TrEMBL record:
It comes from the Bacteria. PANTHER family: ACETYLTRANSFERASE, ACYL-[ACYL-CARRIER-PROTEIN]--UDP-N-ACETYLGLUCOSAMINE O-ACYLTRANSFERASE. Coiled coil: none annotated. It comes from Streptomyces tubbatahanensis. This is Acetyltransferase.
Amino acid sequence: MPGAQVADDAAVGAGTTVWELAQVREGAVVGTECVIGRGAYVGAGVRIGARCKVQNHALLYEPAELADGVFVGPAVVLTNDRAPRAVDPDGTLKRAGDWHAVGVTVAEGASLGARAVCVAPVRIGRWAMVAAGAVVTSDVPDFALVVGVPARRIGWVGRAGVRLRAVPDRPGVWECTATGERYEERAADGAEGVVGAAVTLRESGPAGRSAG
């Protein structure tokens, strides 16, 4: 749209809209059928998959990576520096080459609520949901619902984004009330440092089908 700033060497997929005052930096890749909202910032080399929505004034700093179908709410921030300083210990102004950028990775279908902050390096799992205003400092499992500062898991969500309910007499089995899909808890690989303890969720089939 008029007023958007898109670098000449940025790649923007077919059907994608970049709204006014948004900035897409050098070497960034934005997939097909995306929406980049007003005033959003997409850093140099950031990669965004297909059918993503990046809402107004969200800030995606390099080297962030978003898979397909990711939702980024208004004023979300994906950071890239674990120990930010403007100057060195001797007071010298830091330059671009004086620090090593680390990124946030957001997996397929995940959603980041308005004003959420993800402190790199972290991974947001598939179809997870980060509540508005949350501050994520550890990896988030697939399908997890996390809230708070720092973010902690309080439940699970399905692909529809609806909070799952426990299936009676089936420990560790959860069901989506919107779609009938069922999910099953399992041990997470490399679970140390993951928000919400050492479990994640996997899809196990429609309602009425035996989990596992």
